[in-house]
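BACKBONE STRUCTURE TOKENS:
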Amino acid sequence: MEGLDLGGFDLSALEELLGGGPSLEDFVSASAADLPAFDPQERRAAQVDNTVDFQVYVDAAATAVGSGSACNNRFEVLMDARQRILDFVAAETRPAEAAGGPAGQLAGHLWHCQAFHLELPSPGDQIGDKSGEPCLRGSVAFGDCVDDEWLVVWFLQEASRRDPSLSITVRDNDGEFLLIETSPWWPPALEEWLDSNNAPNRVWLRGERH
């Protein structure tokens, strides 16, 4: 392995073990130019494939039906709920050196791909999910960092515990992953009955209950 400096490490023993197989030269590059090019766009595309999606429903927004002033009231209710949740997330992740309060218990957390956020449509847009129920929506790409996905779940669960008027659904690329995670504790009757057709919307975060 001429030209490759491994700090005096003796490769002969390893080459002996390899026998007639591939040599270490097949696995170790002596030059950065020999390495495959890094494509950040390809990396980002792969990371976006892993996302956690959530919808936040607010009791007061659901009771404000109709159009005109009622629609504006729904928007205000959702806007207030969104701000409370984002303030909570900001407080929990506030760095120690930041102004505005003490450091959060997750001080300085760095999101792997995308930070927690909630989408709020403008008053003139459709406010709600596909069925028309008014709600907030969010989607966070977590890439290879599953810890970020579970952190999103924790933020949402804590938000609903602090405000029991919030009802929250959470899904990822696998669907109802919270339901999937509980499968080892399913009773036999549930295993026989539950399938991909009746699984959606079976798990909700609402206060202390799931």
Q: What stands out?
A: The helical segments are 12-18, 40-48, 59-63, 69-92, 146-162, 177-181, 188-193. The mean pLDDT is 76.
